Amino acid sequence: MMTETVKSENLDISSLLFDDLVPFMEQIGEPKYRAEQLFRGFSQGKTVEEMTDIGKGLRAKLAERSRWADLEQVRKLTDPDGTEKFLFRLPDSHVIETVFMRYKHGNSVCISSQVGCRMGCRFCASTLLGKVRNLSAGEMLAQVARVNAVNKVSNIVIMGVGEPLDNYENLLLFLQNVNDPKGLNIGYRHISVSTCGLVDRMEQLAQRRFPITLSVSLHAPDDETRNRLMPVNRKYPVATLMQACRDYIAVTGRRISFEYTLVKEINDTPRHAALLASLVRGMLCHVNLIPVNYVAERGLEPSSSGTIEKFRRILAEKGVNVTVRRRLGSEINASCGQLRHQYMKEQ
Ligand code: SAH
Question: Do residues 207 and 320 share a domain?
């Protein structure tokens, strides 16, 4: 028991930037190349125990003085379309989900940023039981690394369970580590961060000027509709959010991707489409339309394909860059915390 407590207070070495790992290793009397081995090992999805290029003595020393991300795969589902969904158990016994998707332009992994979520979006399964804790940078990296060890990953979307900008410091560490040439070396241009619109954090993130893609979950063009779907809108209403998006584009020069989940009779009328078009007109952006995935506890129905097409056409006619998202993994509950939620109901 005692060692357990000490362990959890130990420094989490799989979440450190390489430049901070080196001095830690020096402190315990180890040369720089050992830091490189560790960093590489974590990027290969290994725990220290699994790094055979590190001697037994050093592994024991590290176990005593530090800790690291450790994901145990508890379930893996494969959809006929090739989408794979992983459930991982963390050392504190919580479970998280990670999704691997195959696209023409390369393989993508969708990772979780928190255990649960506290944003409360009305259509979403991830937030039904609230937020348990943030994931560490190492736990985010390990999701990518574990999947990449089996199938080469070229793109990362941080669109799984959790609100990444509500776990801001760890997100920044993760982005830098996954981009590091000494590790997975995945370019920022191949990484998307999705947010429900935490404006203060968006402003901070813009200042970092990472050439990532920011996805903003808009889902409604007016406060009345957005308040119904997303409690966060009461803190950051549509006009405030859109100004933050314009500022983000101005500072970073990067196009924003707006996510718009279509819910039958709630946000899918021609009036909503016209409002949305005027909201984003002239912005460096793309609009992604997604039929809502039905979540039993939520009871919100997806719009019909005819309604979606009509909505898309109104936007396109007004010059908006718009696409309808292809659905992957629909047979394995692959979206938005659905598998984790199902697993937890079973337990
Ligand atoms: N918290 C972040 C990222 C996680 S959610 C965010 O809000 O963007 C990833 C995306 O899935 C968001 O656009 C979210 O609104 C959407 N989403 C959640 N539940 C959904 C559902 N049942 N059907 C369709 N999209 C959903």
Answer: yes
Which pLDDT tens digit goes with each residue over 105-143?
A: 899 999 999 999 999 999 999 999 999 999 999 999 999
How far is ligand 1, taken at its centre, from the CA of residue 335, in Å? 8
Structural domain of 142: 72-346
Active site residue 336: yes
Provide the whole-model pTM.
Answer: 0.94
Of the candidates 30, 84, 97, 259, the residue annotated as catalytic is 97
Burial class (CB in 10 A: 0-12, 13-18, 19+), 113: buried
For residues 108 and 242, membership in a common domain is answered with yes
- Integer-rounded Cα Rg, in Å, for the chain is 21
Residues 317, 322, 326: CA angle, nearest 5 degrees: 135
DSSP code of 122? Answer: T
Tell me the β-bridge partners of 260: 289
Q: What is the CATH number of the domain that holds 57?
A: 1.10.150.530
Asked if residue 224 and residue 132 are part of one domain, the reply reads yes
Per-residue pLDDT of 158-201, as tens digits, reads: 999 999 999 999 999 999 999 999 999 999 999 999 999 999 99
